[in-house]
Amino acid sequence: MNSVPKxxxxxxxxWREDFAVGDKDAVVIVDHGSxxxxxxxxxxxxxxxxxxxxxxxIVEAAHMELxxxxxxxxxxxxxxxxxxxxxxxxxxxxxxxxxxxxIPALAAEASKEHSNIPYIVTAPLGLHELMVDIMNDRxxxxxxxxxxxxxxxxxCAGTGKCRLYS
Amino acid sequence: MNSVPKxxxxxxxxWREDFAVGDKDAVVIVDHGSxxxxxxxxxxxxxxxxxxxxxxxIVEAAHMELxxxxxxxxxxxxxxxxxxxxxxxxxxxxxxxxxxxxIPALAAEASKEHSNIPYIVTAPLGLHELMVDIMNDRxxxxxxxxxxxxxxxxxCAGTGKCRLYS
Lengths: 166, 166
Fold this sequence. Notes:
The structure is a homodimer.
Chain A: H1 9-12, E1 25-31, H2 37-53, E2 58-63, H3 71-80, E3 85-90, H4 97-111, E4 119-121, H5 129-146
Organism (chains A, B): Zea mays (Maize)
Protein name (chains A, B): Sirohydrochlorin ferrochelatase chloroplastic
InterPro entries (chains A, B): CbiX-like (IPR002762), Sirohydro_Cobaltochel/CbiX (IPR050963)
């Protein structure tokens, strides 16, 4: 991939409501999955943030492998809750093999039991203009911490890791 | 990790300039590194976006493993360009082993040759409020595409992958 996906946030504010989320659109947020339980639990935190900040009425977490719920589990839960369309959203930075092959294959498999429910696999998160803001925000927060102005963020809290080394 | 790192974007707009980027602050943006060259090249695109949107005068790409430039290469390049502090920023979503151990160890190793240059390893990108906006933006763009309103984004361009399946 040589070019940057269109961020075009400004222009998106003028989208017609037709393209807005439908009441029966469900979102399955899929991360890689880990043997580390704390990593799997982190996805639940993201799902909570996503639910709180958006208007989707059905949002489910799923792990691509190594942990449950699987994509199939989550797809089924969405249908049970009345989804008429399932949006599979990979919590991945880059369009690697997992995004190109593994997640589409698992979504296809999951949809077999619900052939009347269309689904889509969305683009990965990286190379979005806002990702620059996130990184810059992390940097500024860390610099504020080492300057003594703020506590460690919750990622570093209690580890003593957020400091200047030399 | 059970809680969400403080996003506090609103309050950050009031940061004193003391915590702003110094002229001699360098940023090393580190991804995992891949055997797939296109994946490594994608980091360069992100570094370009980061340079264009921020005020850091020295920004270098690095790969944790599997590809060059290494963290040591990038750290050295920053010092050559006059960096007085190096900010190592992991292009990772979660605070897993790579963030906790591998990148700090590689940064420490890299800094041995530049003992007068302090460095810091910043927090990972995930669980930031803006990540919700990024995911929602991806979803909306895909839905607009399947509704026939916009072209495929550059991630999907030419693949025919961005469509409703059932």
